Structure formats: structure tokens, C-alpha cells
Amino acid sequence: MLRAERRLSQDDLAKLVDVSRQTINAIEREKYDPSLPLALKIAKVFQKKVEEIFFLEK
Description:
Elements: H1 2-5, H2 10-17, H3 21-28, H4 36-46, H5 50-53
């Protein structure tokens, strides 16, 4: 998991992308799909392309 590799807590990441910790938790548990702006913010934090982090399942 990228967040753990970067030693960020859910709260740390939430603050960086301006959402609640619960939102990060829901994304990680695949209970919530982030909006495009949120996905872009998360990708920027990890210096990755959005499609390297989020993808559609077939």
C-alpha cells in the first residue's frame, strides 16, 4: 500500500488532500470511489499517475 510505504497515517493523507480520515479509510477498503479531483490530489501526493493508483475492474 502506497500510504504505508510512505509512512503516512490515514489522518496524514486525509489532511494532505483535504478530506476526512474516514474518506481515506473508505477508499482503501474499496467502499468509496474518489472523485476525479480527489484522485488527482492523491496521485500528486504519491507522485504517480492516477491510473497507477486507481483502475477499473473488469
